[in-house]
Write a structure and sequence with these properties.
Blueprint (H helix, E strand, L loop, with lengths): L2 H9 L4 E2 L8 H6 L1 H12 L2 E6 L2 E6 L2 H10 L8 H4 L2 H4 L8 H11 L5 H28 L3 E2 H18 L5 H28 L9 H26 L5 H7 L11 H32 L1 H14 L7 H4 L3 H13 L6 E4 L6 E3 L2 E3 L4 E4 L1 H4 L19 H4 L20 H18 E5 L6 E4 L3 E4 L3 E7 L5 E2 L4
Parallel strand pairs: 1-2, 3-8
Antiparallel strand pairs: 2-3, 4-12, 5-8, 6-7, 9-12, 10-11, 12-13
Organism: Hyphococcus flavus
Family: Belongs to the cytochrome P450 family.
GO molecular function, one term: heme binding
Amino acid sequence: MTVEEKQHQQRIQIPFDKGWPLLGMLPPLLKNIIGTFSKMARNHGGLVAFRLPQDRGYLVSDPQLIKEVMLSGEPKFPKGKYTKRMEAVFGGGLITAEGANWRRQRKLLAPIFSNESISKWLPKINEATERLLKQWNAYVEAGASVDASALSRIYLQDVMGEIMFGNDISKEEASKAAEAMTIVNDTLVEEFFRTTVLGSIGRLALTPGARRFRRALHEFNRIVDNAIRNADKGEGDHLIAQFRAARFADTGSPMTEKQFRDEVSTFFFAGQETTANALAWALYFLAKNEIEQRKVAAEARQVIAGAAPTWEELGRLTFTRQVVLETLRLKPPAYAVERRTSSAVDSELRGCPLKKDALVVIAPSVTHMNSEAWPSPEKFQPDRFEKDKLRDRDQYAYIPFGAGARKCIGMNLSLTELTIAIAMITREFEYSVSDGAVVSDKTGLTLRPFPEVPLTLRRRSRAGSATADQS
């Protein structure tokens, strides 16, 4: 680097949000993570520095800078210490793995989550959806409202139980696992903040939240271990069997028992939690937007000839897929992603040198509300995702599943589950948000609606309008 280039770099200043004395941005982040990051981006732009106790950070929300971080990857922007704390839940699974280990695991597992594999799971997904519709119908007959959040979790428990274990997990155990996952989801973020203030000592602090986390994690692990043992005893084309049968191309060997166990935990947790939250949010948005809800119902009745969609019909549920994508824009389950600058290699963004070993936050929840990429970003407008409207949009302005080589391996499975559930529910029922209900964000490891999504139901007439129960 020439003297002139060094002098130019020194003149470049990254905006800095200093926050509170000593505590930096920790107090506002504790109060409202998404709101605080959004305010920082509005006030300072697509790259802003901030401070936490015992840490320095950068919020990156500009799509081109996000691209730079995600495509650079290791060694400049490895996963950070907060992500590594998720190893308590996921071990060395794909969410937390890095480097050669991650690349090897990803290559091994990618064929299992191809569209060809997903198409073979379609009957199981459709059967679970049919059971979900029967539950909704029972609520209609009883004249009761439904909690879309709770039923979405039950639906994904059912789907993942079938796909992962061949349904070798009882409803009672699946319910306990879901409860444990909710606690882990909420309390692990508390642990992040606790260790931000206290450092490594914070991990040993026996706070009520820490005790709840450890109990819930123990219960989750117990249920997963039992389900694996039961699945191993039988036969079937479930994920347990496919994971067992997978072989590394370079050695011909299977995963070690630890690798296998870590991936099972990763997919069982992530495969339920993120998709269930997205489904609840989608139903909420459709309940608030009658025109879009009717369009989904009309499309489902026009496209789906039988009791459930075929793989070919699924591809023609175009507007329903747009509803899914718009929901994930407004409420991305993975609302913030962590990287770090390298402690050994120099990193920079937009010509600005970054401090070494600093937190780098990429927040889809912020980038998805960028008015330059998304006019009237706060509005629910599924037609944003019509093909002709996507041509000129920066692909890194939309990252609900991440981007680059580390894009979520389960993306297509999740989109399939969501599209089927939304189409089938809306084909059969008309629903609205119950009077007086207030739904807000709950930020844990994922973003979920809180406290619930209460919906008032009626059967939809064949003409497309709703009808009361006539039985």
